[in-house]
Amino acid sequence: LPISAAANLRPGAEQKVVFITARVHPGETPSSFVCQGIIDFLVSHHPIAKVLRDHLVFKIAPMLNPDGVYLGNYRCSLMGFDLNRHWANPSPWAHPTLHGVKELIIDMYNNPKINLEFYIDIHAHSTMMNGFMYGNIFEDEERFQRQAVFPKLLCQNAEDFSYSSTSFNRDAVKAGTGRRFLGGLLNDTSYCYTLEVSFYSYILGGAASAVPYTEEAYMKLGRNVARTFLDYYRLNSLVEGPLAPTPKTR
Questions:
Q1: Is 215 a catalytic residue?
Q2: Which residue ranges does the record assign to the Peptidase M14 domain (predicted)?
Q3: What is the mean pLDDT of the chain?
Q4: Is residue 249 part of a domain?
């Protein structure tokens, strides 16, 4: 888009940023398909995508562990680190991708013209069904309740997303994850989530059997994640023309 066409990119404009990362665990290949669905939708000609581009800035790091992916590792990097346990103090030598992304996030956080409003880290889950989210627990009850809004909206848009499986925790084992660390670093206008999706199947409401996930179904979940920002920011009235429904995936 030309800079003049996007209100969020005009000189001096305040930027609302959504930061998305994926594939920090190399073996969790579904996360890449979900992330691809988000990217494909955001750069498409869909009228919702145009509105989102005009009002939000999306920063996407689609593969946080490229060396682990290249080597075929399941969880670790080339040097044997689970990168999703090193967000607190990543080394530029041992954890370069994490270090770079963290520095970028901190720079944006310290920029008064940027509101870093969402951080979503995409993973795949080996035992649970459907898509679901992990969020953080806060002492501030209002902040805790506001954090539940996005996954509730996503549940309305994505038939394979389960709000009942979504949970909020402060498990000590997860303290070094992106969701936990950034949830403690950023202010109360920022929301940090881990988006999980099953390796295997999803169960639709009222159905007796599970539906196997396909690459297209994962990408559809990604498209629905992107679409949900339209509802969250109440931008629906700005969409021009009739909206084509997202194709059903079986």
A1: no
A2: 1-233
A3: 89
A4: no
Q: Is the pLDDT of residue 230 over 50?
A: yes
**From 196, 215, 216, 240, active-site residue:** 196
Residue 53 has pLDDT above 50, yes or no: yes
How many residues in the chain? 250
Q: Is the residue at 103 inside a domain?
A: yes
Q: What is the pLDDT of residue 9?
A: 65
Contacts of 103 (CB under 8 A, 6+ apart): none
Among 20-34, 50-64, 108-122, 234-248, the range scoring the smallest mean pLDDT is 234-248
Under the banding of pLDDT at 50, 70 and 90, the label for residue 70 is very high
Written as six digits, the tokens of 118 are 């969402």
Domain around 55: 2-240
Phi first, then psi: what are they for 85, rounded to 5°? -125, 10
CATH value at residue 166:
3.40.630.10
With bands split at pLDDT 50, 70 and 90, how would you rate the model's confidence at 250? very low
Report yes or no on 250 lying in a domain.
no
Q: Encode 16-46: b = buried (16+ Cβ within 10 Å), e = exposed.
A: bbbbbbbbbbbbbebbbbbbbbbbebbeeeb
Count of domains observed in the chain: 1
